[in-house]
Request: fold
Amino acid sequence: DQQVKQNSPSLSVQEGRISILNCDYTNSMFDYFLWYKKYPAEGPTFLISISSIKDKNEDGRFTVFLNKSAKHLSLHIVPSQPGDSAVYFCAAELEFGNQFYFGTGTSLTVIP
Amino acid sequence: GAGVSQSPRYKVAKRGQDVALRCDPISGHVSLFWYQQALGQGPEFLTYFQNEAQLDKSGLPSDRFFAERPEGSVSTLKIQRTQQEDSAVYLCASSSSPLRFFGPGTRLTVL
Reply:
């Protein structure tokens, strides 16, 4: 059963506009959430994370929002750049676990 | 090296053949993870090592899958009698924190 879901397999955005990638989860015990970015033929690379005790974390153009009551998190990229084109995975972790639970990914294309 | 490396990058195997996939983690990283990523899916957990101890192998799909890390650094994922459903990218990650650093993966294709 998929505990972390990304319901949009793809997203296209014009350069300079905002990209919003969404992620839903089912396990209220998740303690830590992360976004990874993946280019073709490369492994996922860490982008940004958020602890369950926070509702927002910002790092440059990237902001992650967490809505625990809705079991939803989102990644905002502003402004979007062509180099942001990649597959984005959200992942969640339990406090006393060692597994990451990944979503299925959203392929972002930023159009110049 | 600076990052996690995996070899081979690509492997084509005939059904029934045994394969061995290697992972070189970041030096000093205690934790090592293996993931399987099927086409169009997110990575799925296979197994976890802390140093040389395999603490969790609950994600291994069958007893044909075996992983080891005998000296607490390099790890090998072995798949015996490969089947077509084993075709996937196998990712290795290492960490010394909540963050995991992934290797580029080995793309296994079983014909």
User: Anything to note?
Assistant: The first strand of chain B starts at residue 5 and ends at 7. Chain B touches chain A through 26 residues (CB under 8 Å).
